Amino acid sequence: MPETPASKTIAIARRAMSYLELPRDQRAPGYQEVYFDSLSDDVELRFAVPGDMFLWGEVRRGKDAVRAFFNETPWHEIMEARGFQSEPEYLANEDGSRVVMLATEGWKLIKTGTEVESCEFAQVMDIQNGLITRILVIQDQSDWTYAYPRA
Fold this sequence. Notes:
By secondary structure, this protein is an alpha+beta fold. The chain is built from five helices and seven strands, in the order H-H-E-E-H-H-E-E-E-E-E-H. It has helices at residues 5-17, 33-36, 63-72, 75-78, 142-147; strands at residues 39-47, 60-61, 79-84, 89-92, 98-109, 115-128, 131-139. Strands 1, 2, 3, 4, 5, 6 and 7 form a seven-stranded mixed sheet that branches. A hairpin with a 2-residue loop joins strand 6 and strand 7. The termini are far apart. The model has no long low-confidence stretch (mean pLDDT 86).
């Protein structure tokens, strides 16, 4: 099958997100670099939640801000990630400028002990010149609002 703009950007998105598919016991230091290397310097990361929501409400602008969000957040105090619970699916528009990843994941919130299983989500990625320029994560975050009410 000939390579198309859509298949090229799906490959970029799949490579970027591949770090999430590693079992936790196989994650060596720097395992997220494949993700960071796929981001443009001016990338924007946003979650489809109210702006004042704990942790997820702030828009991260720039690769350094995204890196800080993932590397400096004390995740072990907040949640235990269960990882993907389904094989991610990737869809792209015809010109390859946008890829959507669909997947299911789970986690446990440390503060409340709430177990979240099989939570579906979509991650929309805009891609230009081989790099991800914008990420929008769409996911039910209601369990987070119970654990961390808005001020």
